[in-house]
Design goal:
Length: 201
Amino acid sequence: MGKRENRVDQYIANAKPFAKPILDHVRELIHETCPDVVEVMKWSAPHFEYKGEILCAIAGFKEHAAIRLWKAPLMDDPKRLLKDDGSAGNFGKILSMADLPPDKILVLFLKQAMKLNEAGVKVEKRIVKKEMNTDAPDYFMKALKKNKAALKTYEAFSPGNKRDYIVWITEAKSEATRNSRLATAIEWMAEGKTRMWKYKK
């Protein structure tokens, strides 16, 4: 049988008012779809495991909630409903119940995730190829130099931490997304944060 985690109860109870009904609804839907799911807290957010592997995760941030399907890259998604935009998860930034995908859609993806876990299919870890150019583009450095705190943080970063930001920004599919990520990156670096700070304990 499934297992609920008290820390997930606390996480949802401490979430922003807009996020509580979203997180509650998705949590219950996950349990209804996968009765044997086990709740765990990883990287300071609720995760749901099935057959010993992560099935999905939910999170509530300051202004949005998110759902992440752990094996989304391997799923059948003919209508291209799944996204991958950092903390926005696989369904974009969820600001209210109205932004949630229909239950039947989420259930279909959860069932796919369950089958992948049952089959023991693994998601290959993304490897940045050595030949990939990870030099900071001019517009990136220009923005950094306008913020002394961000520049200082960046210069103190390890090559890996620098690369995390560069890849995230340069892989944006539109100029609007790139500019948004760049602004967020500058803000985070000015606060001394790495790209993956949200997922570290």
